[in-house]
Amino acid sequence: MKTTFKLLATSMAAACALAAPAQAETVRLGFAAPLTGPQAHYGEDMRNGLQLALEEANAQGIELDGSKAQFELVSKDDQADPRTAVQVAQQIVDEGVQGVLGHFNSGTTIPASRIYNDAGLPQIAMATSPEYTQQGYDTTFRMMTSDTQQGAAVGVFMVKDLGAKNIALIDDRTAYGQGLTDQVAKAVQRAGGTVVAREYTTDKASDFTAILTNIKAKNADAIFFGGLDAQSGPMRRQMATLEIKAPLVSGEMTRSDTFLRLAGDTANGTYASLAGVPIDSMAQGGKFAEAYKKRFNKEPGVYSPYAYDGAWNMISAMQQAGSAKPEKYLSKLAGLKRSGATSENIAYDERGDLNEVSVTIYQVKDGKWEMVKTMVDSAK
Fold first, then answer.
1. Model pTM?
2. Longest C-alpha distance within the chain, in Å?
3. What is the C-alpha to C-alpha distance for residues 314 and 83, in angstroms, rounded to an integer?
4. Which of 36, 203, 281, 375 has the fewest CB atoms below 10 angstroms from its CB?
5. What is the CATH number of domain 23-144+278-347?
6. Nearest 5°: phi and psi at 11?
7. CATH class belonging to 146-274+358-374
8. What phi and psi values does residue 220 have, to the nearest 5 degrees?
9. CATH 3.40.50.2300 residue ranges in the chain?
């Protein structure tokens, strides 16, 4: 009798095991960006977009490697510093992540990418410097249009749309600022314009009087600055003090509420380019914005929808492979084709750059950023 009960109990336990849902297994994804200091608002914006995607994926009950996947973000603060970024990258690798969503800055992403590539970890970064995906790694992918593509659009816009023939350039010597400005310089010259001055500063500077005085003497029709809003805001104020009438044109780092606050009443007339299209023109921008505001109780920033799509790109590649193992899903990521929040045609070229090129020019009018022009094309 005891044997019968024992066999019955064993059979019931086996049946329950077969009927039970797959055990949840944590899929850890690394993330690094500036989370403290003057660029912390960029990092927070990016992290929120990633977190929203991971929470949605967890709610869907996605199964990978025979288990229900529970996605978790392993966050690190790289302080927008290249040396810190390399240390953080090694920490992320040592924590056993299965992919990396970051870094934010080009100057941190590029040195960190070697660490991830050596570990065989796919990396989808916000970095826009061309160098990031030109290193020959098969693990590097982007969330946004590159500076080569964006710089070309900005240079043509200044010469053709603004009618600026003589253009002065300033960059902050970071990988992002210098890289973008180099591309703008090439595009200006191809479009028939002339670079009348090339000045340099740093991403820690706050006084630009000397270089602006030099530029004023050159009678530039427009001034392009490759750098952060923490510098472009004070720079715009100092241009007004020096009575420089030429418009300030900058990249996506300037297209922010921080710039508006720092520049104050001198912000009007400033132009900024942004890789991508306005959120209300995105494929599912309205849906994303609604979900973002519900989750974080504020409007999404510039980078959050691209971070959101970056996370879903990696998750989708894992779904297609049925695995979170990098060696299994990397090829799926490289060949990915999907419709996301930012575009209906998300796909990568052989380097990991986005196939679809989209750049939007904004201008400050009455203290607010307003769209001027959007350019969408194929990179091929």
1. 0.80
2. 104
3. 26
4. 36
5. 3.40.50.2300
6. -65, -40
7. alpha beta
8. -70, 145
9. 23-144+278-347, 146-274+358-374
Residue found under tokens 């039970």? 20
